[in-house]
Amino acid sequence: HRYTTEISGTYLDSERRLVVVVHGREVPEAEMLDACALRRDSQSTDRPIDTVSYVFVDEAEARAHLHALWLRELECRCVVDGVEVRLDVGYAPEPVVPSWVPAVRERWQRILDGA
Predict the structure, then answer these.
(1) Sheet holding 83-86, edge to edge
(2) Could you give phi then psi for residue 54, rounded to 5 degrees?
(3) CB 3.0 to 4.6 Å from 75: which of 40, 53, 54, 81, for a disulfide?
(4) Which candidate, 99, 22, 100, places its Cα nearest to that of 68?
(5) Angle at Cα 29 formed by Cα 56 and Cα 27, nearest 5°?
């Protein structure tokens, strides 16, 4: 992997977690990919990273990034009333069903029903 961004944050030794604070900026996909690579590449170092947590100061910014972070198994957290809250725990996105699926389901159901 060729890194394109520098992932900087606070490393928590006891949790083997890198905390990246985000305020007033977008987290580009390239950065998320680099965070995943860093997590992988750090395993044989003296500071292995098991988890990368993106902690947003603004909840709306956090929610805007939730799905993309969740897809990459990067934690999505925000500060609500001074307390750090994980948004990705229990997150279950609504499946997107392509427009052609209902027609295929209907056709196969008729075949399975013997029609």
Answers:
(1) 10-12, 17-22, 51-56, 75-80, 83-86
(2) -95, 115
(3) 53
(4) 22
(5) 25
